[in-house]
Amino acid sequence: MASRIAATQKTERINLRATQRQEALLRQAAEAADTSMSDFILSSAVVQAERVLADRRWFVATQEQYDEFVRLLDAPMETPKLAALFAEESPFGKPFPLE
Fold first, then answer.
1. How do residues 4-35 score in pLDDT, each as one tens digit?
2. 34 secondary structure, DSSP code
3. By the 8 A CB rule, do 44 and 32 touch?
4. What end-to-end distance do the CA atoms of the chain give, in Å?
5. Which residues contact 61 (CB under 8 A, 6 or more apart)?
6. Which of 28, 30, 57, 80 is disulfide-compatible with 40, CB 3.0–4.6 A?
């Protein structure tokens, strides 16, 4: 039980400055959400951070773009240096066939 609590314990501090208008807006929104201002700011920032990072992991493409992407992935590639590397004797004593 103690390790479970330790895993969710908040130990890091984040400081920021805001204008009076920003602070009042955040306080009003936190009250409307029935949460503390710290929890409101942190959860809002985490949601935005996840959206920003998702934009770098999830891509939208047209059907034509996707088809071209798949075609390029499926196209055979000449890899003579890689083939030569795998043709060498394995340091583990077993052959590693490329095919």
1. 555 578 899 999 999 999 999 999 999 999 99
2. T
3. no
4. 50
5. 69
6. 30
- Report the distance separating Cα 99 and Cα 97, nearest Å: 6
Q: Which amino acid is at 84?
A: A
Do the Cβ atoms of 30 and 40 come closer than 8 Å?
yes
- Token pair in block for residue 76: 């055979």
**Lowest mean per-residue pLDDT among 14-23, 40-49, 72-81:** 72-81
Place of tokens 């000449």: 78
Residue 83 near residue 97 (C-beta atoms within 8 A)? no
Neighbours of 29 (CB within 10 A): 14
Structure tokens at 31: 């009250």
